[in-house]
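BUG: 3D viewer hangs when loading the predicted structure for this chain

Environment: internal workstation, default settings.
Expected: structure renders.
Actual: progress bar stalls at 90%.

Input used:
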Amino acid sequence: MRQFIFTLSLLFPLATPAATGAWQASGRGVALSHRGVAASSAPLRAAETINGHITLVYWRYTISEPIPAGLQVQLCAGSRCTAIEGGSGATRGLANVSASEALRFIYTVPGQGGLFPPLRVGRNEVMVNYQ
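C-alpha cells produced before the viewer hung:
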C-alpha cells in the first residue's frame, strides 16, 4: 500500500491550494468643485506585496451632503475601472487583477461649471479579498 501511494505521488504532483486572504486600506477623500472634472483619491494598497488575484472588493466612501445629481463613482486598479453605486457595497468588477495593485476611487459629476457647495468625500475604504 505504501508503494502504491508513493507511486501515485510521483505520477500526480501534490496540488497546493491557492493562497487566500484579504487586505484593507483607507484614506482621506477628495474635494470636487467643478462639473466635468474627475477627482482621484490617493492610491489604496496592501501593506505588503501580495501574490494572488482579486476575487471580490468591498468598498465604502462618505460624502458630504447634498450629493450632486449625476454623481458617478468608479473604483479603479491601473487602467481597469468598474462603476460603483451608493456609499458602500461589493464588486467583482476587478476580479483577476493582481491583488498587489493599488486601487483608486474616481469621482465625476457630468456637465460644466462649478459645484456649489463643492463635493467633499470624507473617507475612502476598501477590503480586498484575493486568491
